């Protein structure tokens, strides 16, 4: 069975929503042909949505299927937790972090972060410590310009020294009045966004599309992880995975073996 183009496709009653890093791909790397083939096959049975915290271009780099327009590959693409979103190949209205918090409060937040990071002692520091995105900011103590080897070394260091958890706790105390959420994800960073703008924001984007079952697959499903809110939401059936291989195994058990 081949998947019909959007112009002929009627959405089924079940949707599978997927985190990206650690669920469909290794952190910041591209999906394997096996994952891309499984997602294509899954669209024969359910609708498929990608729900990532990264911006649209980063997700596109990781999940682009050769020979296809990226937004035509999945039923929904929710970047920045759904604040930038595509439904059936068409872009939906965007939400804006700066408009929500205001320019002056935004500057206070960024200045505080940069001062804090100037005093954090870690083995190496690179570049792009604060990355502005449309619906959030991403904060990286080591800097997003680090190499893959440096990324992995920081991830191991952070597990021992809790650089990110300590910074998140300090931010919560300092900016509690702003109503922000601080969510640790991936290996080197955490996201900052208005409360309610976590991945459950994407659920509002599909609320009127008639889904009777919403499955979510993610690896950071523990409290404080950036998949926790949508994983534990009463509207979803949450699946916690440990790797892309684990995701493939679950898809086989839940959908393909029953076909």
TrEMBL record:
Name the pathway it acts in: Nucleotide-sugar biosynthesis; GDP-alpha-D-mannose biosynthesis; alpha-D-mannose 1-phosphate from D-fructose 6-phosphate: step 2/2
Its GO biological process annotations read: GDP-mannose biosynthetic process; mannose metabolic process; protein N-linked glycosylation
* EC assignment: 5.4.2.8
> Which reactions are catalysed by this chain?
alpha-D-mannose 1-phosphate = D-mannose 6-phosphate
Q: GO MF terms on file?
A: metal ion binding; phosphomannomutase activity
Tell me where it resides: Cytoplasm
Q: Which domain of life is it from?
A: Eukaryota
The residues listed in the UniProt record as binding alpha-D-mannose 1-phosphate, with positions renumbered to this chain, are: 28, 133, 144, 151, 189, 191
Does the UniProt entry include the keyword Cytoplasm?
Answer: yes
Name the CDD domains on file: HAD_PMM (cd02585)
* Cofactor field: Mg(2+)
- Per its UniProt record, what PANTHER family does this chain match? PHOSPHOMANNOMUTASE (PTHR10466)
Q: What does this protein do?
A: Involved in the synthesis of the GDP-mannose and dolichol-phosphate-mannose required for a number of critical mannosyl transfer reactions.
This protein is called Phosphomannomutase
Species source reads: Saitozyma podzolica
Lineage, highest ranks first: Eukaryota, Fungi, Dikarya, Basidiomycota, Agaricomycotina
Gene encoding this polypeptide?
A: SEC53
């Amino acid at each position: 069975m081949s998947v019909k183009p959007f112009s002929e496709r009627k959405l089924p009653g079940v949707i599978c929503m997927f985190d990206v890093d650690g669920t469909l791909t290794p952190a910041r790397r591209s999906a394997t042909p096996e994952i891309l083939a499984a997602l294509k096959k899954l669209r024969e049975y359910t609708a498929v949505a990608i729900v990532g915290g990264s911006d649209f271009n980063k997700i596109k780099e990781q999940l682009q299927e050769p020979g296809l327009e990226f937004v035509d590959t999945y039923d929904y693409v929710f970047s920045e937790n759904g604040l930038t979103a595509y439904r059936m190949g068409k872009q939906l209205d965007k939400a804006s972090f700066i408009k929500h918090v205001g320019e002056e409060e935004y500057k206070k937040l960024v200045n505080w972060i940069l001062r804090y990071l100037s005093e954090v002692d870690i083995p190496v520091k690179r570049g792009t410590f604060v990355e502005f995105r449309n619906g959030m900011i991403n904060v990286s103590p080591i800097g997003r310009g680090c190499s893959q080897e440096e990324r992995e070394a920081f991830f191991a260091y952070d597990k021992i020294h809790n650089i990110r958890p300590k910074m998140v706790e300090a931010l919560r105390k300092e900016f509690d009045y702003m109503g922000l959420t601080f969510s640790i994800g991936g290996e080197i960073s955490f996201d900052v966004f208005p409360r309610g703008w976590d991945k459950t924001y994407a659920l509002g984007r599909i609320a009127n599309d008639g889904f009777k079952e919403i499955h979510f697959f993610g690896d950071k499903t523990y409290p404080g992880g950036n998949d926790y809110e949508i994983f534990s939401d009463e509207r979803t059936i949450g699946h916690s995975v440990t790797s892309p291989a684990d995701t493939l195994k679950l898809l086989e058990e839940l959908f393909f073996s029953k076909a």
